[in-house]
Write a structure and sequence with these properties.
The structure holds two protein chains of two kinds. Chain A has strands at residues 4-7, 10-13, 19-25, 31-37, 44-51, 54-57, 64-66, 76-78, 87-94, 100-102, 106-110. By secondary structure, chain A is mainly beta. In chain A, strands 2, 4, 5, 6, 9, 10 and 11 form a seven-stranded mixed beta sheet that branches. Chain B is an all-beta fold. Chain B starts with a strand and ends with a strand. The chains are: A mainly beta, B mainly beta.
């Protein structure tokens, strides 16, 4: 089945550690996105990529990094510089018309 | 950044009730409006994409309208069912950046 896979579903990180969230899609979409959700807020854009080997910062990119070496993959690294990393992270890809398809999310908790 | 407001934030209705919610956004800075449904423990899924003023889309008992001149969209559910329980997200697409800007969502709970 075509879709977007995020892993892991739950992730625990110690303060000061970097951690990488995986996002893979087999929909053949060029564009991919990372969003963060906090309670009572909408989805906020962290990074996006319109094409392989290219990506741009979203609205809240500080403390995060990404790579886009393959069309299918868009991993997100939450670095120790991110001051409030505990959140729910959603990955998405989109059609050329801009319709987004989402993964099931990763809940990151800093312990 | 577009400021997108959805109201109400949450809604509890009885099975069979009809309901509607609102998405407001600055009318001058967008070129499309998306609605997504996000059920618990699932991924958000696209419901509608609208671009034209006066556009109306329908999917089963759910419909949406768009007013681009005043910057709002309504989502209607006729005869709500428990399976309609979800968070409904609206997302205008910024004409400056081409990016989706999500509202905080309206969470609907339909009681049997």
């Amino acid at each position: 089945d075509g879709g977007i896979t995020q892993s892991p579903k739950y992730l625990f990180r110690k303060e000061g550690q970097n951690v990488t969230l995986s996002c893979e899609q087999n929909l053949n979409h060029d564009a991919m996105y990372w969003y963060r959700q906090d309670p009572g807020q909408g989805l906020r854009l962290i990074y996006y990529s319109q094409i392989v080997n290219d990506f741009q910062k979203g609205d809240i990119a500080e403390g995060y990094s990404v790579s886009r070496e393959k069309k299918e993959s868009f991993p997100l690294t939450v670095t120790s510089a991110q001051k409030n990393p505990t959140a729910f992270y959603l990955c998405a890809s989109s059609t050329q018309q801009g319709v987004a398809f989402f993964g099931q999310g990763t809940r990151l908790t800093v312990v | 950044i577009l400021n997108v407001e959805q109201s109400p934030q949450s809604l509890h209705v009885q099975e069979g009730d009809s309901t509607n919610f609102t998405c407001s956004f600055p009318s001058s800075n967008f070129y499309a409006l998306h609605w997504y449904r996000w059920e618990t423990a699932k991924s958000p899924e696209a419901l509608f994409v609208m671009t034209l003023n006066g556009d109306e889309k329908k999917k089963g008992q759910i419909s949406a309208t768009l007013n681009t001149k005043e910057g709002y969209s309504y989502l209607y559910i006729k005869g709500s069912q428990p399976e309609d329980s979800a968070t409904y997200l609206c997302a205008p697409v910024s004409s400056n950046t081409g990016k989706l800007i999500f509202g905080q969502g309206t969470t609907l709970q339909v009681k049997p």
